[in-house]
Amino acid sequence: MLKLTKVSKVYEGKVAYRALTDISLEIEKGEFVAIMGPSGSGKTTLLNIISTNDTPTTGEVELDGENPHKLKKNTLAKFRRNELGFIFQDFNLLHTLTVEENMVLPLTLDGTGVSEMKEKAQQIAKNLGISSIMNKRTYEISGGQAQRVAIARAMIHEPRLLLADEPTGNLDSKASKDVMKMLVSINEKEKTSLLMVTHDPQAASYSDRVVFIRDGKLHSEIHRGESRQAFFQKIIDMLSLMGGEGNDFSSIRV
User: All domains of the chain, ordered by start, with CATH?
Assistant: First the structure.
């Protein structure tokens, strides 16, 4: 589904900085993969390259056999809008719009009819438990609700790949659990492939597999077995093995 082949990224400047080195990674359709590593390890650079916000210096990125980095500007914009969904740590919602208006934004850009937009918004709001706040402004709702709205907006056009950057970073432990359960549910029901960058071992333990990056290179990966608790412990062990500063990973929440 998603295939990276020997992807490297070098930022030119007075001193060239190599952010990624020869990253090769495959994600199957419907797989949920978390990416972890110390600050500055290249996690966000990798996500930016996959999301086409940044281009690789060398190497190939393919989504269902197509390299989005070779598309022309307008075709690329459409590709991003139709094939990818984005969830951010700070929600990226527009405060001047209602919850419903934020949710249907991707459909508005595609020129979808009003009745179809309303129908899709109501269905996804029902699934995510936010039907009661559809007419509220985003500053009137909690962080957990705001992240649900952001998930709804990312999912409303049924993308093939959902990219999440620290989706629980600004949430308390209960809201974090709710959001992660929601992402798992979307992943299982819709078979949407999900790639998540996180510092939070608890959030990572909901994934099928965790890929660890260090100094811009693939360090290791571990797969989830039957027990999420055992997987969580494996993640903790791997993080301590990798070292890093104490503030590199969020406080552990079980």
Answer: 2-248 (3.40.50.300)
